[in-house]
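Onboarding guide, step 5: your first structure request.
Type a short instruction followed by the sequence, for example:

Predict the 3D structure of this protein.
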Amino acid sequence: MTTQTAENAPAPGREPRIIAFCCQYCAYSAADMAGSMRLQYPPEVEIVLIPCTGRFDVILALRALEKGADGVYVAGCLEGNCHFLDGNIRARKRVNYLKKELESVGIDPGRLEMYNLSASQGPRFAEIAAEFYGRVRDLGPLHKNP
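The system replies with structure tokens like these:
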């Protein structure tokens, strides 16, 4: 993880943009619960509903980063509780693969993460969103032009 310097500090008025790919059964339901509970998390976290994290592909993350996202995370069911058996395990392998690739081209792998949670963990969803947002904010903007 890099430390924040004047060079990579967020531009004034520019907050990091985060894309969260969430499975419909657990992570998206947890996000919905967080909203129902009126829990606060950064509005810069944009949720993208996917049927299962097993459908997550590295191209989705790369396109999100290319189109201006400063960080991407994938959130799915607890390991061993995937509604499609092993989708979240396959997703974790893809995320770990992409982290290595990002690092090889000079992008901090901390801009990508995988989380597992159950549908009843609304507070945990809000916590994850805030923690990841803080991590990416500390890394600074990925793109020079906001």
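Each response can be followed by summary notes, for example: The CA atoms of residues 54 and 87 lie 4 Å apart.
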